[in-house]
Amino acid sequence: MNMSNSNEPALFSRGFTQNPYPAYDKLRGQDPIHQVRFPDGQLGWLVTRYEDATTVLKDTRFIKDYSKLFGGSMDQMSVFTQNMLFSDPPDHKRLRGLAQKAFTPKMIAGMRNRIQEITDELLDALADRNEINLIDEFAFPLPIIVICEILGVPSEDRNKFRLWSNSLIEGTSGEIGVSVYEHMTQFIQYLGQWFAKVREQPGDDLISQLIIAEDEGDRLTEKELYGVVSLLIIAGHETTVNLIGNSVLALLAFPEQQQLLRDQPELVGQAIEEALRFNGPVEFSTSRWASEDLDLSGKRIRRGDLVVVALNASNHDPEKFTDPAIFDIQREKSPHLAFGMGIHFCLGAPLARLEGEIALNSILERFPEMVLSVDESELEWRSGMIVRGVKEIPLSVY
Q: E strands within the chain?
């Protein structure tokens, strides 16, 4: 479907994954609410304009719970969807409220020193090196250690979480093989064993709170517990891994902005906001379905139609952002959609921002010079319909 005419960009191809922005620009100009066959085989609408994106993200007629329209669960990955990201009110408020306790501004602010400690330890281990892999040796371990400490799971299991998380994300590309289901089964078994330990000996961590907590008389069901914890483990590190990686790539591509941040490290908050807008770590919104027939900027959307927002396309809409292809850390306050909008706004956004700020300033302080060890065209972007990030960032540092 996505090759229905010769002018239409080859969506979801390898070239698109490497650099989707020319395709987004073309779609935004020609057909901003575009019907397409997604990689998993579903037919739906892809939204690329900022104004339309905010409508979809906020309008309660676009729902997240597939079963309300079609009954049953959508697929074998449904054990991972019993959480606030895939639910609608009133379930959404209850599920989000239980998890929110670990992500209050006060709780996040209190973690600054610990995040800086972990950052320093990781960078200390690279002190005598001239060649590093930023993802493997820094951008991945930092947020996974942080989220493991919040949840109370052993950080030594972080490589397992990475394997399981990658499988789930790659499964969104429509290529769900045996290994994906094996990894899902392993993840579920791991969580089940961990929940059993916590029930016997609860601590002060978030999983203990979720297992024993009652919020206005509402406990999590067993399926909801799996869903919420798996979301926190996966989303709790994936967003930040790619935020750190994409931020560094942007600074390498715009050396004058890198120098500006080196000279004025107090601009790091603005730098992270611009990195989120410029090449955000989450490529697409999770799926929504129209709960009734409706019109969206002249397109007739039927009840049951799948609608997906291209978040990064919306963040490059020239009607909203001046010179969107320019990375400018002094850009005025950015209303970007990198963390979504409305009731599903990312729960962990304050944590991701704090980790990103600490990571970026610490990297620049430790490495007065850094350059890519390979040509930018050789970087391999991750597949799937969720994250935008590269698998490796080999750097020469001095």
A: 33-37, 43-47, 62-63, 131-133, 288-290, 294-296, 299-301, 306-309, 370-372, 394-397
The answer to whether 210 and 99 have CB atoms below 8 angstroms apart is yes
DSSP structure class, residue 78: G
Q: Which long-range contacts (CB under 8 A, 24 or more apart) does 107-110 make?
A: 108/350, 108/351, 108/354, 109/354
Token pair recorded at residue 176: 């769900």
Q: How far is CA 340 from CA 17, 200, 373, in A?
A: 21, 37, 33
Residues 390, 32: Cα–Cα separation, whole Å: 27
Q: What is the pLDDT of residues 137-186, one digit of tens each?
A: 999 999 999 999 998 888 788 888 888 887 777 765 555 555 777 888 89
CA pair distance 347, 30, nearest whole angstrom:
34
Question: Shortest CA distance to 166 belongs to which of 151, 144, 147, 150?
Answer: 144
Burial class (CB in 10 A: 0-12, 13-18, 19+), 39: middle
Token pair listed for 393: 């960032």
The pair of structure tokens assigned to 190 is 């791991």
Cα 350 from Cα 359, distance rounded (Å): 14
- What is the three-class DSSP state of 136? helix
> Which own/partner pairs from 257-263 qualify as long-range (CB within 8 Å, at least 24 positions apart)?
257/327, 257/328, 257/329, 258/364, 260/329, 260/330, 261/329, 261/360, 261/361, 261/364, 262/364
Tell me which residue of 47, 93, 86, 80 sits closest to 66, measured CA to CA. 86
Q: State the pTM of this model.
A: 0.90
All residues at 6 or more sequence positions from 164 whose CB lies less than 8 Å from its CB, including other chains: 183, 184, 186, 187, 234
Check: CB of residue 36 under 8 Å from CB of residue 46.
Answer: yes
Task: Report how far residue 254's alpha carbon sits from residue 247's, in angstroms, rounded to the nearest whole number.
Answer: 11
Summarised one tens digit per residue, pLDDT across range 188-243 is 899 999 999 998 998 888 888 888 765 445 677 888 888 888 888 888 888 999 99
**Upstream peptide bond of 90 is cis (omega within 30 degrees of 0):** yes
Question: CB-based contacts of 346: which residues, under 8 Å, 6+ apart?
Answer: 235, 239, 339, 340, 352
